[in-house]
Amino acid sequence: MSIELSAVHPGVSCGSDQMKQIRTLLGYQVVSISAAARFAGVSVAHLHRAAKGELPNTARLKVFRVGRRVLTRTDWLDEWMRPKPSSSPATRGDQAVVI
User: Fold this and answer.
1) Looking at the domain assignment, is residue 99 inside a domain?
2) What pLDDT shows up at residue 7?
3) In this predicted structure, what is the pLDDT of residue 55?
4) Which residues does 60 contact at the CB level (< 8 Å), separation at least 6?
5) What is the DSSP letter of 27?
6) Residue 22 lies in a domain
7) Does residue 98 lie in a domain region?
8) Does residue 71 lie within any of the structural domains?
């Protein structure tokens, strides 16, 4: 996934040189939680709860902080949004035995 920052924040520049470096930290695309929430179609509060592991039956969203900013990598967001395989017998390949 590639989130274009100008598309996420139209008319807003990336900010300081430090933030420009953070946005492409180690070659990864990095976005704020609010930008990630807009992309995922959920509230910012929902992503904060996901980052804290407070959502039942939902994986924890990986995030990191730079000062007060809460950021996530786009590949982590992709991983979090990807549907998880169900553990029901039908999807595990188990077969019911009929007597």
Assistant:
1) no
2) 42
3) 93
4) 50, 51, 52, 53
5) G
6) yes
7) no
8) yes
pLDDT attached to residue 85: 75
The structure tokens listed for 31 are: 């976005």
Predicted TM-score (pTM) above 0.70? no
Alpha-carbon distance of 48 to 57, in angstroms, equals: 15
**Distance in angstroms (rounded) separating the CA atoms of residues 58 and 63:** 15
Residues 6+ apart with CB under 8 A from 63: 33, 51, 70, 71, 72, 76
* Contact assessment for residue 24 and residue 35, using Cβ atoms and an 8 Å cutoff: no
Separation of alpha carbons 66 and 90, rounded Å: 44
Q: Count of domains in the chain? A: 1
**Domain range holding 64?**
5-92
pLDDT at residue 23, as a whole number: 63
Contact 91, 50 (CB under 8 A): no
Given a contact cutoff of 8 angstroms between Cβ atoms, the answer to whether 43 and 13 are in contact is: no
Output the CA–CA distances (angstroms, integers) from residue 82 to 41, 64, 92, in the order listed: 14, 20, 18
CA distance 31 to 38: 11
